[in-house]
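Fig. S4 source data, part A: sequence.
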Amino acid sequence: MTTRFQTETARMVTVGGTRTPLLPTRGSGGPHGKRAAVRSIRSLLRHVALIACAVVMLYPLLWMLVSSLRPNDEIFTSPGLVPFDLDFSNYFVGWTALSSPFGKYLINSMIIVIGAIIGNLVSCSLAAYAFARLNFRGRKIFFAIMLLTIMLPFQVVLVPQYILFSNLGWLNTFWPLILPKVLGTDSFFIFLMVQFIRGIPKELDEAARIDGCGHFRTFFQVILPLMVPALATTAVFTFIWTWNEFFGAIVYLTAPDVFTVPVALGQFTDSQAGSDWGAMFAMSIVSLVPVFFAFLFGQKYLVKGIATTGLK
């Protein structure tokens, strides 16, 4: 067996009484050194490209933040990102510019978001367990129909839903935006949880069944505690999508006291009387704070949930 010492000795030659390496070593200017230099240059270029893309993506957000600290007459005349005079008056003006304080719209949006999250977690997890674990007639057909509804545009079902909720007298209430979540209409989350449950060993179900557990006890005591990443992913996505929901909110909510944040922000723009851009940008920054913290605290589970369900 050739030892490492023998290998290193074979690579040495004696020149003028001095032993020198026969082959060039890493970083000595040979092929290895050139490859290392090429890798360093590629890594540098990759980082420069990523930083440039990050700057391009963050520029609109930074510009909006800076614009919220400028007077209205300087917002569109100063495209730079360095504000020379900080003006916080837009935040005070925007908070009380509408018929109700802006905190009212934040509370309205938060009520809808909490209801949507609870509805999605309960309904989608139960439906996903049924598709992933229960054997019933027509399961594959129902699952295929459920998948097809993912590709169904929201605008297609908007009119029949509006007529239904109008007949129920639920316009200008939060129910049209919460009830569909309770009924498990977000097929994307059902599919995500089905994929996650399929990755859980069925031996756990069989062991629970031997211990006398039915389907509900198996679901609540065995499957549900293991679904934390998928549930967290569903909660974060539901929070962001519901918080930013504009189209459904503006259709069902027409009374100012039930406006959500996106609908309230739209009230700052007026094509005839003029738009208060500074106040709108200031309140837009305020409305981004809950989304930022939701993503900040949920990103660990968000990445883990997407990775474990095979959705990339």
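Fig. S4 source data, part B ends here. The beta strands are 12-15, 18-21.
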